[in-house]
Amino acid sequence: MQSFQAPSSGPSRFMDPGTPPHVFTLTFVAAAAAMSMNVFLPSLPGMALYFKTEYHVVQLSVALYLLVNAVMQIIVGPLSDRFGRRPVVLYGFFIYILASVGCVFAPNIAIFLTFRMLQATVVAGMVLSRATVRDMVPDAQAASMIGYVTMGMSIVPMIGPSIGGIFDEAFGWKANFWLQAITGATALWLAWGNWGETSSPRAGGFAEQLRAYPALLSSPRFWGYSLTAALTSGAFFAYLGGAPYVGTNIYNMAPARLGFFFGAPAAGYLIGNFLSGRYSVRIGMNNMVLFGAMTTASGMLMSMFFFTLGYSSEYVFFGFMILVGVGNGLTLPNANAGLMGVRPDLAGSAAGLGGALMIGGGAALSALSGILLGDGKSAMPLLWVMLISALLSLVSILYVIHRARKLGL
Length: 409
Hints:
The protein has helices at 23-38, 44-50, 55-58, 60-83, 85-105, 109-118, 123-136, 139-153, 155-171, 174-194, 206-210, 213-217, 220-250, 255-262, 264-283, 285-308, 314-319, 321-341, 347-373, 380-407. By secondary structure, it is mainly alpha-helical.
């Protein structure tokens, strides 16, 4: 790992590594990391046939990826606080590119899943794009800027499953992993040429950075923001694990059509992030998080209401997922800014630990949704998982608001 460079200063200039990264670079790097999560999902049923295995086994490519992703975030945050944002991003994408190519040539499901887990190093792009924003601007502005960055970032996950479905039908499932390798190479080139260092060096070694975690874990505000983000996004991760099965096995959707419908939450996420970028400073982080949690829970309640009345088509199932996306778009930028603001000097560690809690919970919910839907003919088990997760996130942010009022914050 290379040593620290002096932090960049001045306004961002595109493709100038002597200045902080341009918003386009932050957005593209985060988008490339996010795309790895869902671009291949329409191919899961076909991959199960290719590897001659059950759907729930190949679905582990989602759950195991999220699990390793969570562990990586615990490591990435302190590494970036100790060695800098730039080198960690560069190494993360380099390994991701190699792992993507490994997925293409995997001869069996075990080797494929191994390379798929290695792809999780790309999480450095998601974690450190947020931490870099926090390096550059204070709390309220960070929530706003993160909202704009993730608004742009959400475009790729929105169209990713559609592109993945088209690539699957035209060239087979392997094309989606070649796409990831090419996108990763582009992100690596951008980061190399434009990601100026934004973090100041920290005293001590990597172990000392890890020892900073108790300062975060002992903060009720950190836990409140982290659990709110984890539980709100948990509804979305459960969707990632279960929606391919629902679309293919319950509604008999072709991969390209499934990919188009699958992007519904990302369309809502785009709207939610735009609202976060525009109104977070004016309305306040906690209020934006509260509105987001309420929106996610409302989407699930309305979907289940229509299912109970017998309107259980793919249009109802995927249509109300737009509200899940809006809720996540309102919640996540503000909750992430909040948890990083607890200890601004440990923004990288906070972003990593908060992300690990979010992704780790997502991995569990993704696997649970796959298990619950494995032999069923109804999407209701998935909707129940998503609703419970959304309601718990609402409880968590209400606790944060109560504590903030009690402390006079």
